[in-house]
Amino acid sequence: MMPPSLTRWFPFLTWPRPDRHLLKGEFWAGMTVGLMLVPQGVAYAALAGMPLVTGIYASLIPALIAVLFSASTRLGVGPTALTSLLIGASLTGLAEPGSAQWVAMAAWMAMLSGLLQLVMGVARFGWLLNLVTSPVLSGFTQAAALLILGSQLRALTGLRAADWSTLLTTPSPGLFDLTAAAFGLGSLALLMLARRWRPNFPAAIVIVGAAGALSWALGYADAGGAVVGALPSGLPAPYWPGALPWSSFSALVMPVLVVTLVSFLETASSAKVESQRSGEQWNENQDLIGQGLAKISSGLCGSFATSASFSRSAINLYAGAKSGWATLFALSLVLVVLLWLTPALYHVPQSVLAAVVVTAVTSLIKPGTLLRLWRVSRVEAIISGITFALTLATAPRMYWGVLVGLLINLSHFLYQRLHPRIIEVGLHPDGSLRDRHLWHLPPLAPRLLALRMDAELDFASASALERRVAEHLAQHPDVVHLCLLAQPINRIDVTGVETFAQLLVLLQSRGGTLHLSGLKLPAEQVLRQAGLLEPRAGLAMYRTDAEALMALQQLPEPIPRAG
């Protein structure tokens, strides 16, 4: 048995020992995913503005590094539509797509993003990713999918004009390459049908291959048609992008942060499905390490940032993959293509690559998501809508959408913490303690304020509790007792301790008592260490609410004043 310290850093040592039965299943699962990797890699490289062969580079060595060092071994790692769009959009205006400067900046984005993920994983900071909620991610993803679709329409339809405004001002069929449109729209229809009827079938490679053969037979490339063209064969050479000027480096800071965030959230969505299938707990920190190393290796190959594809991961699981061996078989197929079969991609029309991208991103568009969010939480639905709108409005700098959405969401969270739910309780006829004003219940006892705060007693909520008590005592001078039903309080910090001491002094100054019911052990330990729970006049403690209720109902009635 391997030492835990060794398997922690080298998780591939825990893979099952291969046998004939295992390898047979892993081979077919790997072939299924491998046949999807090549056409998607080339298509996503075009989306990122990179040389097309870099999409195959990103599907090989980074995917190998990821499967060796990640805890989730059945993820389809490589280029993805969302990450590729972020890279292409972030570099727009900073360099010419496909140029040496563009490639260098994309490689720096991959390495910096990978380094950030690696540091987070080693420092066990995976919990930070929980700051991005589902509504924010959903709004960003929906908008990004629409932007991806918009970016592919020219290639898909064979539009020769530089932009759509030309078509609007001088509409003419001559503005379209009708052959490219036929290839693109026909491939899109076939891919959609295949995804609907045979989702586990690698239709992309079949359709891309058939389109390339038909393009060659028609002499489409010789007639000036837009095709993939010549791709270099062989393994990627080691690449170093060189130093960046400070202006270029500073322009990459925000895009790197968002690529780091979004790409790993893509990974998380796939990894959680895998962990549920396997019945094991997801190790997000180890996956951060694996994905970070993969991005760094991608940059050092002259390629762009990678992530885990939800669609390829789902296909891998559906095809019966049990371990990382399936990914090794998939990568062997990519290696064969890279070494010997890249000339076969020469005649593939670029409109077919656009069809591959469009097919992949249509699954991200879910119009009913916002409506479902509205039914559950209108505030979070509004946050999702703002994220969606800003992502579209700020394109190509669309990272502002997710950053503003994250800021609004954190502000909403902080507002809720600063305004906790504090209710005055009364005894309901069914024997439960409920909101006295909502249910029109009498006080638990004369001259008593009984409160329950559904929050921790810390710096965020303490002032709200103190303000509520002070306002009530000012309006009701006869109240001298305060009962704090403390069972919902899980934690008390220094500010909470100070607030508790002030409440105790306030009740003692009125000749009354602070009644404390159901205080949990962690909170009780903090208050005892502060010396506030020592037996004294003006403080009464009860283990349960039932015990507190019995004691409160025995409080003396107020003595009427003489006329």
What does this structure look like?
With 563 residues, the chain is of the alpha/beta class. Helices cover 59% and strands 6% of the residues. The strands form two sheets. Strands 4-3-5-6-7-8 form a six-stranded mixed beta sheet. Strands 1-2 form a two-stranded antiparallel sheet. Helix 21 links the parallel strand 5 and strand 6. It is elongated and about 100 Å long.
Summed up, what is this model?
The protein is an alpha/beta fold and 563 residues long.
Write the layout of secondary structure elements.
Layout: H1 4-9, H2 20-47, H3 53-57, H4 61-69, E1 76-78, H5 81-91, H6 100-122, H7 134-157, H8 164-169, H9 178-197, H10 203-218, H11 246-251, H12 253-278, H13 284-300, E2 307-309, H14 310-318, H15 325-341, H16 350-362, H17 368-376, H18 378-393, H19 399-418, E3 422-427, E4 433-435, H20 436-439, E5 448-453, H21 462-475, E6 481-485, H22 494-509, E7 513-517, H23 521-529, E8 539-542, H24 545-552
Parallel strand pairs: 5-6, 6-7, 7-8
Antiparallel strand pairs: 1-2, 3-4, 3-5
- Low-pLDDT residue intervals, each spanning 5 or more residues: none
What integer is the average pLDDT? Answer: 91
In one word, what is the shape? elongated
Number of strands: 8
Keywords:
563 residues, alpha/beta, six-stranded mixed β-sheet, two-stranded antiparallel ribbon, 24 helices, elongated
